[in-house]
Amino acid sequence: MEQYKVIGIGDNVVDKYVHQGMMYPGGNALNFCAYARMCGMEASYLGKFGNDYIAQYIQKVIDDLEIEHSHCRIFEGENGYARVTLEDGDRVFLGSNKGGIAKEKAWDFTENDLNYIKNFSVIHTSLNSYIEQDLATLKKRMCLSPMISRYAGMMNIWNKYAGMRTFHSFHAVI
């Protein structure tokens, strides 16, 4: 069986559960990397971090999960976070800083970044990654995960299931 080498590009945040006083790392692109590692895949993450304690915490978790992240950028400012609570077992979002530094700083992928990215079988990103303007460039380099393919002008294999309920963060490699 072919071993996929995948990269998540984009969002990393923490959810601050105010009723517990706990925070949990996440973000669609980062979650993708974590789940890929759990499935035994080689996974890397390319994202933007602030220079605060939240960013340091997420980077420690990424290290613990053995997700490569040497090409990430660090900027002055807050990392992304959302404030969350639970009501009747459901998550209720109380507010966020809208991705923090990730929203404020443009990607400006370098040729070095693009050469690094082309070493992967699949790119995964999300609508919260602020790279829509770069998808056409990334599309020329490699395979995009199905949920972002339509934004890069590619046929979305999931269109035939349009009548079925699907989840925003569901992805598959076919």
TrEMBL record:
Residues 14-126 form the Carbohydrate kinase PfkB domain. The keyword Metal-binding does not apply. InterPro entries: PfkB_dom (IPR011611), Ribokinase-like (IPR029056). Keywords: Kinase, Transferase. It comes from the Bacteria. The keyword Lyase does not apply. Signal peptide: none annotated. One of its GO terms (molecular function) is kinase activity. It holds the Pfam family PfkB. This is PfkB family carbohydrate kinase. The lineage of its organism: Bacteria, Bacillati, Bacillota, Bacilli, Bacillales.
